[in-house]
Amino acid sequence: MSAERAIIIGSGIGGLTAAISLATEGYAVTVLERAASAGGKMREVEADGARIDAGPTVLTMRWVFDDLFEKAGVRLDDYVALHKLSILARHAWNGGARLDLFADEAASADAIGNFAGAAESRGYLNFCAEARRMFETLREPFLTASKPNPISLTNRVGLGRIGDLLAIRPFDTMWGALGAHFGDPRLRQLFGRYATYCGSSPFRAPATLMLIAHVEQDSVWIVEGGMQRLAEALTACAERLGVSFQFGSEVSEIAVRGGRVGGVRLHNGERMEASTVVCNADPSTLAAGLFGKDAARAVASVGHATRSLSAVTWAAHVEASGFPLVRHNVFFSDNYAAEFEALGKQGLPTDPTIYVCAQDRTDESNPDGAERLLILANAPARDREFTSSELDACETNMIKRLRGCGMELAPGAMTRTTPADFNALFPATQGALYGRATHGWAASFQRPGSRTKIPGLYLAGGGVHPGAGVPMAALSGQLAARRIVADRASTRPFRAAATPGGTSTRSAMTNSTA
Known about the structure:
7-stranded mixed beta sheet, 16 helices, 6-stranded parallel beta sheet, alpha/beta
């Protein structure tokens, strides 16, 4: 008897992990990707001949990928080289103030003490303990489990641990909760920034998101050769298990027959049959009808007001001077509240916080001359493009913010990407990079889960449970595969074996579906 067939639309991180997980369960998996290579938002942009990571730049929760590869019968280290950072990030403010956070918690506490005093150092250690407790409370019942509702989450945690559940502080804002730990407004600004990791405002996000600080404190990794190498490693692992990749293959319709999925139709008219389809595009693409009117009812649409942040980014190959860059650097605005007020009004802040990923720098290396930088300013997701004058002003304000912290950029090649560009890359998102914003206590329960309203159609990616970010997207793909297997358990009399030797078919197309 032949293996059951599954089609995955999109080869972002969620699609790749779903492919690996289904292949290990004996499914015959085909991944359809309209781009020329895998990765989705994990993409590279060229500037002056240099290839620069222009999507995710931070890798945390390595254990997610170690576990995935182990279940596939291989080792992550055999496919990609990862290096742990000792300096997590360097933070700077106007006038020359700087603060490093370290992988060693005690070293960070000492640095904060030297920066802002002993009371702030003690506040930091208390903050770390609270963030750790939040993560440990939610890891098993929320992050690595199927989408819960408030009642089922309470049941999973257990009535005996109700104190732990209340301690995740879902009804407090992140900004307000940080005030209990830090009197120095710069430290509230620093740790409030973790809300932007999922495209949210620290003034509206629940205090629960403080757990992101624990995730980063636990370890930050560099992917040797760039983040795209991780996508390539996942692709190679999937191919070893027999997964077939068809690049340059754009899906125009998800076929629904008799109330359930029957396969897909490609833009070239080709039809492919399958009783299981995983959509690794933003859920908004389904709701907007981009995969056909029948599939549009699979998920609820996401209102504009609930979308996450977008960004304006510059992939640059330039010489930077005057500031001792490390791998990850943050240059903070003078007025954080005003920055997020502007974003909330669909505008570009006049004084933005700027993130710089210096991709040729490690704990040991500091290059001379031009280097690869990804520079990012938060921006709102919106229907229309910013004007040229607005974008030029944004670039001027970015340079001004860096200069205020002592950093100068020499003239050089820079490739700019705007919210409208992100919307073109990831249709129906209005440029939102993280799906639904995590604003309010209920937001985490409002993301769609793996299963849709259409039997046989499932979701994976950063726009679905458990949330945005590379490891979360990876978990979403595994959760989708787990749900598929569970839903099929009563009708499958055997567990087929995966067969090594998948194939790839590539084209010159460049846009990505997931």
